[in-house]
Amino acid sequence: MISIKPMRIAIASGKGGTGKTLVATSLFYALQRERIEATLVDCDAEEPNVMSFFQGQLEKSAEVMQRVPVIDENKCTYCGKCHEYCNYKAIFILTPMKVIKVMEDLCHGCGACTVACEYGAIVEKDVSLGQVNQYAVSGNSKIIESRMNVGVYSPVRVIKAAINESNDRRVVIMDSPPGTSCPFIQTVARADFVILVTEPTPFGLSDLKQSVETLKTMGKSCGVIINRAGLGNDAIYGYLHDQGIPLLLEIPFDREIASTYSKGKIVAAEKRHLQTLLLSVFNIIVKKYGNSHHQR
Amino acid sequence: MEIAIISGKGGTGKSSISAAFATLSGQPVVLADCDVDAANLHILFAPTHEEDQVYIAGQTAVIDYSICTHCGICMDYCQFDAIHSMDGKITISETSCDGCHLCARVCPHGAITMVDNDKSRMYSGAFRNGRMVYGRLAPGEENSGKLVNMVRDKAKAIAKDYNLENIIIDGPPGIGCAVISSITGTNHVVVVTEPTLSGLHDLKRALEIVEKFSLKAWVIINKYDLNDDMSRQIEQHCHDRGIPLAGKLPFNPSVVEAMVNLKSIIEWQPQSEFSRQIGAIWNTITQSK
Ligand code: SF4
Ligand code: SF4
Ligand code: SF4
Ligand code: SF4
Fold it and tell me: Considering only CB atoms, which chain B residues are within 8 Å of A122?
């Protein structure tokens, strides 16, 4: 067993479909082959699909719950204070008609209405937002999957619950949700280093810029992997150079890679040289950015 | 008529197909880019900036330290783990605060104020085949569903003002509130998928939502020839589910070429077989009863 300093690496991309999951699954696979104990967290709770690439034993599955209010209409005086306290417009009230309704889809479970009610008319119940599933895969490694229920207002709670299950004493790879909004921030906030996967196209560059700006304001180190290199143009290279962002790896466009991935196979398992390349990227990252906040 | 294009996951070529639909000849449209988290179509179409509007994406709690006594009461109420105490000092984490306002209401000293998150914008203007509206959510903001609603309302108003019949909505990836906001009440929802195992998986989740809202769904299999076997499985799935296949498109490197040249594939290669197929798909969808 090789001992490697614990480290958290998030793999992200401005937009989905740039090859983020391809990189995350391949890197995880490469670590497994090297007998480096690792945990892969699928933080894309809206569309988790990491598990479709691996075989594993479901070890633990937990519901992620949120509290929503239930109004006891026998005690309610229709005073409207809960409605006034709710910053998400989740309580509908028509005082003259004596109608009050909680719109559960809008409720964020903040508890403000319960604090507001002076008549003890509000109790809370738990509703499920999604699940965190933990799988044991070969070589002592683990996959933790966040899976949001369809139609929930935000995946953030489910993502946080999944990340909280990952062990700080190991290498943790986080397959981040797409975009730069809240779910992305909550994932990369926990990372020591962020790998941004992008394509050399105008869309790819525009999304990359937005991700880089966001990471900068958060003070996070990042590097870039260009996927489908060769399809597109060169503008991205100039940008990376100007910004001083390390280009970690280029994965050329290759129909075979696309077809391997499409069958739900791990690209690095078929393309052995990608394993080697990703491991050297990993080693560079560990050496340069390893456990910055774990050393206390 | 409102036609929403979604994909379950990004990267299936959804935006390129939206761009193609938006530039079919002889029919100016309103193009609404509702992928507010990663709006891209304005890069291709460089619309004029005629209007921008601030979008308030919720609020964040801020402590006035000249008043705060660090009593910690607010911390006990926060359900989002956003308030922490470190060495006796109470701080609110901007990234974790959900903006619920509760801490500000319970603080006995009135030390907390709520500040609007006002960095997100909605823009509208003209592009070469009609009008365009797009939203841009500032990094770290939540609540994109509401910005999507704002974009769609604007698109509808514009369609009326300019007497344009069709609104094309480029939806966000995922299955969250922003997707729901992008599709509710539309006439057609086109789900673009690709023939991969995860594509099929995401397609199923996307169709679940479309069915939940009883909307008219269509499926396009993009790059179908990258995996014929998987394409057949997807076709079978659609068939079993009673969802019509609007068409299949082959993998075509010219789509990227077009993008690099800031054109839709229809503009780049109007006479190609590929462009003809996209036109045919459009007709299948819009002429259905
Ligand atoms: S818990 Fe919060 S969000 Fe939910 S209804 Fe009550 S006040 Fe509104
Ligand atoms: S605050 Fe309590 S009593 Fe007043 S309307 Fe709400 S539930 Fe009813
Ligand atoms: S409740 Fe008010 S005074 Fe007390 S710690 Fe919070 S902000 Fe400060
Ligand atoms: S506004 Fe709500 S979420 Fe934000 S710090 Fe206050 S209690 Fe917590």
Answer: none
Task: Give the tens place of pLDDT for each residue, A223-274.
Answer: 999 998 888 888 999 999 999 999 999 999 888 888 888 788 888 888 888 9
B59 in reach of chain A (CB within 8 A):
yes
Residue whose CA is at the smallest distance from ligand 3 atom 4? B71
Closest chain A residue to B145, measured at CA: A153
Q: What spacing in Å lies between the alpha carbon of B115 and ligand 3's midpoint?
A: 16
What CATH number has the domain spanning B59-116?
A: 3.30.70.20
CATH topology of domain B2-56+119-286: Rossmann fold (3.40.50)
> Where along chain B do the CATH 3.30.70.20 domains lie?
59-116
Nearest CB neighbour to B37, from listed A181, A231, A262: A181
Residues of A in contact with B44 (CB under 8 A): 202
Choose one of B63, B78, B102 to mutate for the ligand 3 pocket test, by most ligand atoms within 8 angstroms of C-beta: B63
Of chain A, the percentage scoring pLDDT greater than 90 comes to 60
Name the percent of chain B lying above pLDDT 90: 71
Across chain A, what does the average pLDDT equal?
89
Chain A from 73 to 92: CB within 8 A of any B CB: 85, 87-88
Distance between CA atoms of residues B181 and B93, nearest Å: 28
Partners of B193 in beta bridges: B221
Predicted confidence (pLDDT) per residue in B59-86, tens digit = 999 999 999 999 999 999 999 999 999 9
Tell me the per-residue pLDDT of A79-136, one tens digit each, with 9 for 90 and over: 999 999 999 999 999 999 999 999 998 899 999 999 999 999 999 999 999 999 999 9
The pTM of this model reads 0.85
Domains of chain A, each with CATH number or no CATH: 7-54+137-289 (3.40.50.300), 66-128 (3.30.70.20)
Q: What are the Cα distances from residue A16, in Å, to A13, A88, A224, B11, B61?
A: 6, 28, 15, 5, 31
Pocket flag, ligand 3, residue B90 (CB < 6 Å): yes
